[in-house]
Structure formats: structure tokens, C-alpha cells
Specification:
The protein is mainly β. Helix content is 4%, strand content 42%. The protein has a domain of 104 residues: Glycosyl hydrolase domain, family 43 (Tachylectin-2, Chain A). It has a 4-stranded antiparallel beta sheet, with no helix packed on it. Strands 6-7-8-9 form a 4-stranded antiparallel beta sheet, with no helix packed on it.
């Protein structure tokens, strides 16, 4: 009888296999990590340190067990904005070029800053400013692809930005692009869409940008008429002409909550979108790029304010949902249809408010970086 039970357990194991979640602590006490994984499985990680601070790059070839010696990215020391959602952002481009952007510290001149590495992260070019002329800005994001396209965007008070007396703490999304793998960039221009909300994005809520195929996807929080609802922009990467898609009508009228809108695309081409509204976090998914599923909350409500959500899926469609609450980085696994499973846990304790991140490894496991 015992032998029979053992055989049944072995035979059933494949159908009962669960998604594996692993955690990585940002090295050197770093803040607001950002990550990218290349086809060889190398983890490229940027983080900030201090306020005003510095930006650093490290890499790992063993899924975060060990890291390379950090490379400081900003040659102008103590000029990087770090903390909450603000820190260096990383993207991988053509020929393995590593692209990094960050916000300059406002008391040190501010600005949108860019650097790149063409030698696999051993060294980086001197940083240079992308905003021109100089004006106030926030919420920088970067995306790159294997064709040599690099997009950097932020929200800011660029000349020609429209004004609305009923809209507070909101700015247009500004976009610059490179078609030569970061050697040169286009002039600053306001992102154009079919809805006025993209001209009044939340002035201090992090943008998210991803390239997939011919399209650029941008997640942002609205600010038009004071409504801080989630939106998605989809447009051809060769054009400045975006379709603005409402993710959910929260009707949340408030000041800037300093909570961005993470966007991820899975292997099936679905768009996963995460956001916080009224102190609660949600995720949703769109299979057709036209409409979204009803918001899916965390399976563990708890008592404290929830923040900094992120949802991403593996090849089987299982979704890892990560968020911060009560000084902890928490996670839960959902089935492809959004149903919560019994898998959930805490990645670690986190002092203060700093956004964690996560990625799907080339080994198929989920990794949380905090």
C-alpha cells in the first residue's frame, strides 16, 4: 500500500507542479532596483544609493547568488534622484548594449540623463542630458530593442505644453528616440495620442515603457481633471501616434499618489498591467490590446496601505503579483484566469518606501528583487 501511494505521488507530480518564487536582495543596500535579463540568462541590475545619490550597475550570471563589482554610472557624483519609485532604469538593446537613464536631483540641476555600455557592463560612457531646452521633469522610463531602437520618455513642462485650469500636478509625456542604438537621440517632443489625458499625465507617478514587435507600450497614471486612473498607450515604434486605452475607470480624484503603472507583456502577447488606487493594489490583463479584464486584487487584504504593485506571467500563464505592505514585500501566485492559488509569501522586510521589482528567469522561475 505504501509503495502504491509513492508511485501515485510521483506520477501526479507534473500536474501538481507549482510556480517557484525566489528572492534576491539588492546588493550593497541599494534602492529601487531595476532589472533586465538577456538571452544567456545574465541579470543586469541598476540601483540607486543615497539622496541625493549615485546610480550603480551590477550583473549576475548565477541568478542573483553573486554580483559583479558595482560600476558607478553618474560621473557627476551625488546628482541622482533615488527612493520611492525614482532610481536608474535599464534596458537591453542591439548587440548587447546596455542603456540606462535616471533623473537628476532637483537641487543639483535636475534633468533626464542617459548613458550606455557597449562592452557588456564593464564601463559606461559619460552621462549626457536628454532634455533640451532644460525644464522641470519627472518619471523617466526607457525601452530598447534588437533593431537599435531606444526610447526614453518622461513627464515635464516642455515649451508648448497645454494648460487646463481644472488639472493640477499633471504634465504631458515627452518622448525622445534613437534609431542608432543610443548614439544619437531625436529632439524632445510631446507624445501624441487620440485622448487629451496623455497631455495631462500624473506629474509624479512613474511611467513604464516596453517594446514588443512593432509596438511601443506605455503605462501611465492620468491626471486630467484630477482623475488618477490607469491608462495604456499603444503605438507603432516608427511613429508618434498612439492609441490611448483606459485600463479601468476608478474615478479616483486626488492629488499625486506617487504610484506608477507597471506594464509587462507575456509569451502569449498578453498585456499585464498593475496599479494602486485608494491604498489598494490591483492587476489586470488584456489579450487583445483593446480591453482589460476586471481588476484583480491581492488575495491577502491585511490592514496596511498597499503600494508598488507588479504582475508578470510565466510561459504557463501563471501570474506572480508582488506588492509592498506593512513594511514587507509580499507576493502571491494567480492562475492564468486570475484565480488566486494557495501560493503566497513574504520576500522580506523593507524599511521605508522603495519599489521592489521582479522578473521571469530563463530557468522559468519567478524572481523578486527588493
Amino acid at each position: 500500500m505504501r509503495r502504491t501511494a509513492w508511485i501515485l505521488t510521483v506520477l501526479l507530480t507534473p500536474t501538481l507542479a507549482q510556480a517557484e518564487v525566489r528572492t534576491i536582495r539588492t546588493p550593497n543596500g541599494g534602492q529601487v532596483p531595476d532589472v533586465a535579463v538577456d538571452a544567456q540568462g545574465t541579470l543586469h541590475l541598476t540601483y540607486g544609493s543615497g539622496q541625493p545619490g549615485n546610480a550603480f550597475y551590477v550583473q549576475s550570471k548565477d541568478a542573483g547568488t553573486s554580483f559583479s563589482k558595482p560600476v558607478q554610472l553618474n560621473q557627476r557624483g551625488g546628482t541622482v534622484t533615488c527612493g520611492m519609485e525614482r532610481g536608474p532604469r535599464v534596458a537591453l538593446g542591439k548587440d548587447g548594449v546596455i542603456h540606462v537613464v535616471w533623473l537628476g536631483y532637483y537641487k543639483k540641476g535636475g534633468g533626464a540623463w542617459y548613458t550606455r555600455s557597449t562592452d557588456g557592463g564593464k564601463s559606461f560612457e559619460p552621462e549626457h542630458a536628454l532634455e533640451d531646452p532644460h525644464y522641470g521633469l519627472d518619471n523617466i522610463a526607457v525601452a530598447a530593442d534588437e533593431q537599435g531602437n531606444v526610447f526614453v520618455m518622461w513627464t515635464g513642462g516642455i515649451a508648448g505644453a497645454p494648460k487646463d485650469p481644472d488639472t493640477d500636478t499633471a504634465s504631458p509625456i515627452v518622448i525622445v528616440r534613437s534609431t542608432d542604438n543610443g548614439k544619437t537621440f531625436s529632439k524632445n517632443e510631446i507624445l501624441k495620442s487620440n485622448h487629451p489625458v496623455s497631455l495631462y499625465a500624473c506629474g509624479c507617478c512613474r511611467l513604464e515603457a516596453h517594446l514588443a514587435g512593432d509596438n511601443l507600450y506605455v503605462g501611465f497614471r492620468g491626471g486630467y481633471k484630477g482623475l488618477r486612473d490607469p491608462w495604456l498607450l499603444i503605438g507603432k515604434k516608427t511613429e508618434n501616434d498612439f492609441k490611448c486605452l483606459p485600463v479601468h475607470e476608478d474615478k479616483w480624484k486626488t492629488g499625486c499618489p506617487m504610484q506608477g503603472m507597471p506594464v509587462r507583456l507575456d509569451a502569449k502577447g498578453r498585456v499585464l498591467y498593475s496599479w494602486m488606487s485608494r491604498g489598494k493594489v490591483y492587476w489586470t490583463v488584456s489579450a487583445d490590446g483593446k480591453s482589460f479584464h476586471d481588476p484583480i486584487p491581492t488575495p491577502d487584504e491585511g490592514k496596511g496601505k498597499q503600494s508598488f504593485p507588479l504582475a508578470l506571467a510565466n510561459a504557463k500563464g501563471e501570474v506572480l503579483f508582488v506588492w509592498a505592505q506593512d513594511g514587507e514585500v509580499r507576493w502571491a501566485i494567480h492562475a492564468e484566469d486570475g484565480t488566486p492559488t494557495q501560493q503566497r509569501g513574504v520576500a522580506g522586510k523593507q524599511a521605508g518606501e522603495n519599489k521592489p521589482t521582479a522578473f521571469l528567469g530563463t530557468d522559468g522561475h519567478f524572481y523578486i528583487v527588493w
